[in-house]
Design brief:
Elements lengths: L3 E6 L6 H13 L2 E7 L11 H12 L5 E6 L3 H7 L4 E5 L3 H17 L4 E5 L10 H9 L10 H14 L7
Parallel strand pairs: 1-2, 1-4, 2-3, 4-5
The structure holds 4'-phosphopantetheine.
Length: about 170
């Protein structure tokens, strides 16, 4: 039987830390579905779900057993709908633990059959988050090495587009 896992997240945008987790997850399962949350209440999203999905497809095309999708509603329902047996999440530091622990146990409460598997990224990515990447980009810092080059270009373009034009107040 094919062992399928789902790696869910906001991916706003995908970082090299996410890619590290995808690589580890893909080596453990027959198929890894990277699933972008659609019904996010994060008002501050920088990229639309379409844009995030397209960035992920672009950078993950090297993996034969990874596909990118989106989901709405309960994660466990989505995992069941794709025939998945596990949820993959990255765990960077102790600060992630409480939130992840709560989610994992709630998901287990909702569906006993789906396990949550925590994978630790390479040390170099333990401080990395999409939120910090957006903040650094917004403030004009370099995000090189933190996100894939295609994503860096899109971030720079997005920041430029949001700057007030000269002469505008
Ligand atoms: O990258 P993020 O924003 O930390 O990912 C959070 C995500 C998408 C994994 C989480 O918000 C989620 O699973 N949402 C789906 C709603 C759900 O199933 N909630 C109940 C179980 S916690």
């Amino acid at each position: 039987m094919k062992r399928i896992a789902v790696y869910p997240g906001s991916f706003d945008p995908v970082t090299n830390g996410h890619l590290d987790i995808v690589g580890r997850g893909a080596s453990l399962f027959d198929e890894l579905v990277v699933a972008v949350l659609q019904n996010t209440d994060k008002q501050a999203a920088w990229f639309s779900v379409d844009e995030r999905q397209s960035m992920l497809k672009d950078v993950l095309s090297i993996y034969k057993n990874v596909r990118v999708d989106r989901f709405d509603g309960l994660l466990v329902d989505y995992v069941r709908s794709v025939g998945g047996c596990a949820i993959v999440r990255g765990l960077r530091a102790v600060s992630d633990f409480e939130y992840e622990f709560q989610m994992a146990l709630m998901n287990r409460h909702l569906c006993e059959d789906v396990e949550t598997l925590f994978l630790m990224p390479a040390e170099a990515y333990t401080y990395l988050s999409s939120r910090l990447v957006r903040e650094v980009a917004q403030l004009g810092g370099s995000v090189s090495g933190l996100v894939p080059p295609q994503v860096e270009e899109l971030l720079v373009e997005r920041v430029g587009r949001n700057q007030p034009r000269k002469g505008n107040r």
